[in-house]
C-alpha cells in the first residue's frame, strides 16, 4: 500500500462517505491540493437501480466523470457494483429480499499511484444502514469499489 | 442510524482497521468508556481460510469472544464472512483466482442500540489491499460484517 | 451431531415442513415436552420478498420471535435467507428468472445443544415445488436455515 | 405437487438421507415396489470435491447411474451441485472458508410424474452438519438436487 | 472435444447467434444433413424473465422442444440460465442493476457425441450487447448453455 | 452494436478462440489493418489460477499489455474473470467441484468505438470443454470478458 496516506483513494472515499458536505474539511483540502475531484451524496432505496442511478447522476452533475464518454461511465459503473457487494454481502439484492438501505456515498477520482503511467483511478464508497423496512431494524453496512478510469 | 455517533459499531470498527495499536486513541477511550471490547490485527494471505483463522484466533486470544461457546463463534464467523464479501466483491476467493490480500482487521463487540433488549452485537472490519501477487499491483479494499451475538 | 435425535432442530423443522397442522403429532408432542416453540405455514409466490414476508409474519403472529426486538428479527431473517438458498440453488431469484415456488414452511425455536450456554437457536425449513409458471412443470425443492437467536 | 406422496422423489430422498441402511424400511419397500433405484452413503470432508466424488462413486457402484454414459453422469453431477447449494447456503466452499461438513447422502432414481413421457429423474439429498473444524461447533444443514436423467 | 467440428453443438450455436436468418447457410445445411434442429431469434430487455420467455417461446414455436413435456422444458430452462451467466458475468440481473441487453439467440438440438447412448443435447447461445440504458453505452457479451435433453 | 462488424472486438475474439495460429487468416489481416493487437493460446487445468496465469503470461509475452503498468494488468484481469464466468456458469470453481477445463483462448486489444475518446478496450475469449476428469465426459463452454484499458 502507498506509504503516502493522503493518496489512499479508498480510505479517503470511505472517510468522505462517513460525513457530509460540512465534514472532513482538512481531507477535502488535501484532495484539492492533489488536484483530485470528489463528490458526496445520499440515497435511500429498496431498489439497487435507484442507488446506482443516484451515484451515476451525482458523478455526472459534479463533473467527476465525463458523461459523454462510455469508458468513463463503464469504469464508474463497475466501481459502483463492487461497492454494492460490500453493502449486500452475498446477494446483490435489496427489496427482492425484503430489505432496504439508507446510504451516504462518495466518489473520488485521482492518481493514487506514484508512477505517472498508472494514471487516474476512481473510488466509490458507500456507508449507511441496511435492514428490514421497519424503523430502527437495521445495522450498518459499508462498501468500496475501485477501478482504473 | 443511531444519532449517537460513538455507538456506531461499524464505523468504529472501520476506523480501528484504518490504524494500528498506536492510532485512534480517543476512539479507544470512548469504546472503553462504553464498556465495549475490541481488538486489532494484521494478516496477509492468498487463502481465505488463513484470514478467517487469523481473525478468529485474535478474537479468542483477546477475549472478544468466548471460544468455548459455539454460538459466539457462530456469530463471529458469519460477521467475518460478510466482511470478506466487501474485500472480494463477487467471488469469495483469493489464490484460486490468482490474487492476494494484505489486510488490517478489527473486531468490536458492544451494544449499539439504545434498547437494552437488543443486547450485544459484533462488528468485523477489514481494510487493506487486494491484487496480483506482484508488489504494488494492488488496490485498496474494505469489508464490514455485523451480527448479533 | 447430537446423539439425541429429538433435539435435532433442523431435522424436526424439515419434518414439520413436510406436513401440515394435522401431521407429525408425536413430533409436536416431543417439541412441546422440550419446551420448544414452532409454527407452520404455506406460501406460493414468484417474488422472494413475499416468501420472506409470509415466514416473518407467521413467526411474529405465532409468537416464535419477539417482533419488537431487532436482534430476534435479524436472527430469523438470516435463517430464512439461508433456507431460500436451498430452494433457489444458485440464483436467489424466482420471477426474475421466470420461475415460481409453492412452499410449506416451518419455524422451530429451541435449545439443540446440551450445554446451557449455547442458548436458543432458530431453524427455518422450506419444502415444496419450484418450476415454470405452468401447472405441473415443477419439481421439489427444500431449504434449511439455522441461526443462533 | 404430485398427490401421490410415495412418488415425491425429493421427499423420499431426504427421508433416506435422515437414516442409514437399517432405517426407513417401509419407504424402501415402497420404492422397490415402484421399481425405483436408490442408494445411501456417508461422507465427511473439508473439500467439496471429496463429497462430489463420494456421491458419484456410490451412484456408480450401486448401479444407480450407468458410468459409461456421460449424459447420466452429467445429470447426476448437476443434481449433486444443486444439493450442495443447500448445504453451503451462499458460498459453494468448505475448507477454503475454514469449515467442514459431515453428511449422510442418498440418491433416488425413478419416475415421479404420472405422464410416461416425463421419464426418469434423479434426486440427491444431503443431510448432516456443517461448522468449524472443532467438535460440536456445528449445526445441521440439508440439500436437495433434482434433475431429469 | 469431438474431432468432428460439424458436431460441436456449442460452436454451431454461437455461429448461429452471430448471424440472422440469412447467414451461415452452409452451417445450416450441415445441421440439416445431421438431422439436427435449430432456431434463431432476437430479444432486447431490461428484465431477464423476458429474455428467458422469448427463448422458450421460440423453442416451442419452432418445435425444438416439445412444450407438453416438462423434462424437455427443464433441460431447455437450465441451458438458458447457463447461457445467461455468460451475459451477466457475476450478477444474474439486468434492470435491477440499471443495465439492459440486446441479444440475438440460437438454440440447437442434436447428437454431439458419437456414442448412440449419449442421445440428444441442447445448446442455447446468446450474443449481443449489454450496457447502460443509453444508446451506444454498451459492449458485447456472449453466453452458452448446454444440457442433455 | 457497431454497424461495422470488423470492429466487433468480442466477436473477433471468439472467432480467434475457435481456431489456432493457422486459422481465421482473413480476420487476422483485418485486425492488422485496424492496428489492433491480439494473441491466441491454449490451457487445460483443474485450477482456475492456472488458467488466469496462462492468459496473463500470454498477454504479457505477446505484448498485448504492458506488464509494468498495473492499470493494464487490472483491466486484463477483470476481462479474464468475466470470461471465466461464462465457462463456469454459476460457481467460479473447477477442481474444487471435481471438474476440469480444456480451453483455447484469445485476447484482442483495439478501438471498437468510432469515437476517438472511447480509446482502447480489451477482449478475452475462452472456448473449449468443461467436464468430469474422465476423457470425453465433457461439453463445450464459452466465455467473453470486455474491459476498457
SSE layout and pairing:
Six copies of one chain form a homohexamer.
Chain A: H1 9-17, H2 25-34, E1 37-45, H3 48-61, H4 70-88, E2 100-110, E3 121-131, E4 138-148
Antiparallel strand pairs in A: 1-2, 2-3, 3-4
Helix pairs in contact in A: 3-4
List keywords for this structure.
Regulatory_HutP_sf (chains A, B, C, D, E, F), four-stranded antiparallel sheet, 149 residues, 4 strands, RNA-binding (chains A, B, C, D, E, F), homohexamer, Regulatory_HutP_bacillales (chains A, B, C, D, E, F), Hut operon positive regulatory protein HutP
Quick recap of the structure?
The structure is a homohexamer of 149-residue chains. The first copy, chain A, is of the alpha+beta class.
The main β sheet of chain A shows up as: 4 strands, antiparallel
User: Judging from the principal axes of the Cα atoms, what is the shape of chain A?
Assistant: globular
CATH superfamily of chain A: Hut operon regulatory protein HutP
Percent strand of chain A: 25-35%
Gyration radius from CA atoms of chain A, angstroms: 15 Å
Sequence stretches where pLDDT stays below 50 over 5 or more residues of chain A:
none
CATH architecture of chain A: 3-Layer(aba) Sandwich
Report strand order across the widest sheet of chain A: 1-2-3-4
CATH class of chain A: Alpha Beta
The arrangement of helices and strands of chain A along the chain is: HHEHHEEE
Most extensive interface, chain pair and sizes:
A-B, 33 and 33 residues
